[in-house]
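Subject: mismatched residue count in predicted assembly?

I count 746 residues in my input, but I want to confirm that the predicted structure covers every chain. Input:
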Amino acid sequence: MRHLLSINDLTVQQAHEILTTAYELDRVSDGQIKKLPTLRGRTIVNLFFEDSTRTRISFESAAKRLSADVINFSAKGSSVSKGESLKDTAQTLQAMGADGVIIRHNASGAAQRLADSGWISASVINAGDGTHEHPTQALLDSYTIARNFERENYDLSGLTIGIVGDILHSRVARSNVLLLRKLGASVILIAPPTLIPVGAESWGATISYSFDDVIENLDVVMTLRIQHERMSNFFFPSLQEYSRGYGLDDSRLSRMKASAVIMHPGPMNRGVEISSSAADSNQSLVLRQVTNGVFVRMAVLYHLLGGPQSATQSEMGI
Amino acid sequence: MGILIKSASVLGTNVADIRIKDGIVTEVGSLTSQTGEEVIEAAGLVLLPGLVDLHTHVREPGREDAETIETASHAAAKGGYTALSPMANTHPVADTAGVVEQVARLGAATSRVDLFPIGAVTKGLAGEQLSEIGAMADSSARVRIFSDDGKCVFDPLVMRRALEYVKRFDGIVAQHAQEPRLTEGAQMNEGTVSAELGLTGWPAIAEESIIARDILIAEHVGSRLHICHLTTAGGVELVRWAKSRGVKVTAEVTPHHLLLTDELARGYDAVYKVNPPLRSHSDVLALRAGLIDGTIDIVATDHAPHPEEDKDCEWQAAAFGMLGLETALGVVVKALFEGSATIDWKLIADRMSVRPAHIAGYEAHGQAIEVGASAHLILVDPKATTTVDRTKMASKSKNTPYDAMALPTQITHTIYGGAVVMTNGTVL
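Triage response: the counts match. Full output below for your records.
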């Protein structure tokens, strides 16, 4: 495996391997060892064209725990804001000797262009591209679900996961549908019709316009952040109306299965897509997601850059 | 000094010799060569009228880094075209008599084929105020087609007035049908592929709603409406319905919409980014059927050159458009006749030369190949194939979606005004 651009790049076997490695790292960290020497001498660039402090520090923390050198390249205050193209930025990083590039970009497909265009030879990890995918978020979500429901082999069959909110603009939703389906879970997409993309019927998920109709069947309620600016394009009339129909409020919280859990990729709009009591309840896995994110990203970096068959290493003749 | 074409298969049917002198076909029959006459041995080759394009972006004036009139005309000669119609979206926009005359003058000076400028419908393509349509029509460029192509004339009142206004000189308004509000930020066809790729959809209804509206306006005011680059099955149905009602509507389809689908957007290679976008396979089939049954009148290239930096980038940041002139014939033959025992050359000549010339009033083009006809002709080897090589385009740009594809047929000669301007891929 050279790059991680989309969940489609992963076989079930490869997904299992990453999640298994994440578990190994998780266990190691329960002891005292905080830092592993795996990626010593390798340079990893966090190339962020969009602000995302959470994702960036999660990757940075993962890379540092594997002893990699980390360069943070943020579009703000860099030459990108002066109109430099993605190609030139990428080639600059290449010239500086980056072994891995973690890219967050507002254009769907930017990670794939970076990987396929011949601009650079580094491994590329997609940390969110436009409204396309966010594969490490899906991996950490599946890892969190598997740990919670004690699915040692990462087989999620029999579980029903509801993804609630702005499916149309959500890269988290796209990656999660692909991975959860791969791992055997049933997925229900829950949103007003305006926020379900035309063509989503082909995703292999059930579509529901009513949160109330399905909430009692869900093992996992995965709420998505709603962007306030969606109102201006008539996706829904008001945040209040959205919240009434699709927010995980206290009454819906009380109707969830006792064994069901709540997830959110963050940052949360408390009182809009999720109430404070839901976010802070003992059914919430939100902080587990953050912790697991580091292990899963360490596992991804390990498989792309640290393994014996790493493309970069063999290319460099090491 | 004339040309004798020996043993050509005229429109793929009867074999004849054709004598050309002073830009005119002077004899057709069984002929022997005369002293000083250039003889083209054309046994096995098909003779067609030179192709006519009603939709070309030549980029000059303003974007000479992408294409010039001269390089576009080389691409045309290579692709068998003897007449081009430069679209108005240049810099400055062709919205005054001055600009269209400049384009026509540059054409006369540098083009290897005929060039008939299209004028803008509205000033600066802004869709708000009519451009000086009458002045362009009366200018030495004699503009007859008006289009804001690249932008839609979205205001129904502006469209109505433009359609009415061009009646004075039997003009035509060519509409780029794209409802702007339904396509804000649109990147590709809206459907299962856009849903997966997370690219903003350009729904078929945004095209069809404008086509439907304009058909109704054209019927009401009795004007000639031309629909640019039709891409959807629903659009074909609307045009079929309009024609059955006797509305004076004509329509074009591009070679790429006859062959390629939105599946190609997977991979985010912006060479496949075009406006209107590549659609689904069922749309492609409907377009082919529409072109064959005559609902769609003509093929037009929408030749849209772009420099490398406008394509070698993120999909969202890339320019819309692809090259078309050099590959049009091969792509159309492939789309319509791949797997068939024979190629219907009469149909090809009709849709790519005769009808476009007729719609636009290019009288010297698309003529029947008989004594007295203007010698704008091409010879095609129907058995050969041409492999596209993006590094060897006659166009100044390289944004062809057909790189490395083997296309059927090979254009061996392009004859413009009685002179060979291209032979076997070399522009003379």
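The domain at 3-47+373-395+403-427 of chain B is CATH 2.30.40.10 (Urease, subunit C; domain 1). Marking this ticket as 'not a bug'.
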